[in-house]
Specification:
The structure holds two protein chains of two kinds.
Chain A lengths: L1 H21 L3 H21 L3 H26 L11 H18 L17 H11 L5 H9 L1 H23 L5 E5 L2 E5 L5 H12 L4 H14 L1
Antiparallel strand pairs in A: 1-2
Chain B lengths: L4 H23 L8 H19 L1 H7 L2 H24 L14 H32 L7
Helix pairs in contact in B: 1-2, 2-3, 2-5, 4-5
The chains are: A mainly alpha, B mainly alpha.
């Protein structure tokens, strides 16, 4: 029975993958990518990796899709037809894929309980974590206690990702300070030289003090 | 989205359940699937849903971007702080046994602490990323 579920999920994964490649409408491609994540989550559940499935469903199918949609709002919904012929990319993909498949000949058989990965530290975790950590979910024991350093590193990585995105996206161009006729003034981004000169002209032409104060206040709010 | 009555009412009903579910995932992580990472994402998803239906402005009034940025950093501080607490109590870094009289109690406390740190960071970062993407305008048109 479980084989039927496996085959169905894998076939749907492959179909979704091919559909994403062939689709020129980016909106549809993003939606299919979300479905791809959800199918992978189903596959992880079948493999009893429910914690991973949970993360895949929440991050892959949920938040990533929303972020991709946010990006589509900026770049448009249609993919342009590529100008070049895809011979070189196809060659690179085939060679890389071939090397990877060749590499799989050396890995231990799938799902074999005697594989080395299952006997390095896994035995200790599975048998002793109940007495050492006293919580039933071994995944949480490994993640938060045995491998606490790794998880702290992961948390720091997520924080770093935020810093990177904010540096690149969040602020936009900052106002600049420039030296003008012996004093420092703040220039809003996007102001052309003519606009700036006109503004300074207005300021020095002796506008009524109330109005000038008003104007600078608005500028401050905009900057 | 002013005229999407069903969406607005539906989202309003769903959001509290999403947030409660995130907390369930967080505090049930010791016994079932889940933990700080998943809970943080789900908690952030509640705010993302609010922003999608009611707009970015109202969401930023509920949760200013600065709060999200501070959360993103605060979680790492909480996580590292648990480590320093264990050192101060005479153990190794992130060795939770020393946090309480019983090692088992200490492990419970320590895991609760670091999972809280993970939750806060993931929540803050997810919301901050969403704000960063959603607040951009098209440049070319």
């Amino acid at each position: 029975m479980i084989e039927v579920v496996d085959v169905a999920l894998l076939v749907l994964l492959a179909v979704t993958g091919v559909a994403i490649i062939r689709m020129r409408n980016l909106f549809g491609a993003v939606m299919l990518a979300g479905i791809y994540s959800l199918l992978s989550a189903g596959l992880f559940v079948v493999m009893d990796a429910v914690d991973v499935a949970f993360t895949e469903a929440a991050v892959g199918a949920g938040i990533s899709t929303v972020l991709m949609l946010g990006t589509l709002a900026l770049v448009g919904h249609e993919e342009r037809t590529p100008q070049h012929r895809p011979v070189l990319p196809l060659f690179v993909v085939l060679v890389t894929g071939g090397i990877l498949v060749y590499g799989t000949f050396d890995i231990p058989p799938f799902g074999d309980p005697d594989n080395p990965i299952h006997h390095h530290v896994a035995d200790h975790y599975l048998e002793e974590s109940e007495h050492e950590i006293h919580i039933p979910n071994v995944v949480t024991s490994v993640l938060a206690s045995y491998r606490g350093y790794d998880t702290m590193g992961e948390t720091a990585v997520i924080f770093t990702a935020m810093v990177g995105v904010l540096l690149l996206l969040a602020r936009g161009p900052l106002p600049r300070r420039v030296l003008h006729e012996g004093r420092w003034i703040t220039v809003r981004p996007g102001t052309t030289r003519e606009e700036l000169e006109a503004e300074l002209e207005e300021e020095t032409a002796g506008a009524p003090p109330d109005e000038a104060a008003d104007g600078s206040g608005r500028e401050g709010a905009r900057g | 989205m002013d005229d999407h009555l069903i969406l607005r009412v539906g989202a309003k009903i769903l959001i509290p359940f999403i947030l409660i579910f995130a907390l369930y995932v967080q505090f049930h992580g010791d016994y079932g699937p889940g933990g700080g990472f998943q809970a943080g994402v789900i908690f952030a998803a509640g705010f993302v849903l609010y922003a999608l239906v009611f707009g970015l402005g109202p969401t930023k009034r509920v949760l200013p971007p600065k709060v999200a940025y501070v959360c993103g950093a605060l979680g790492v501080v909480i996580f590292a702080g648990v480590g320093f607490a264990t050192v101060a109590l005479g153990g190794n870094y992130l060795d939770y046994d020393v946090l309480a009289h019983e090692p088992a109690e200490g492990q419970h406390l320590g895991i609760l602490g670091v999972e809280l740190g993970v939750l806060v960071t993931v929540f803050g970062v997810m919301v901050a990323l969403f704000y960063a993407f959603a607040a951009r305008r098209r440049i070319d048109s």
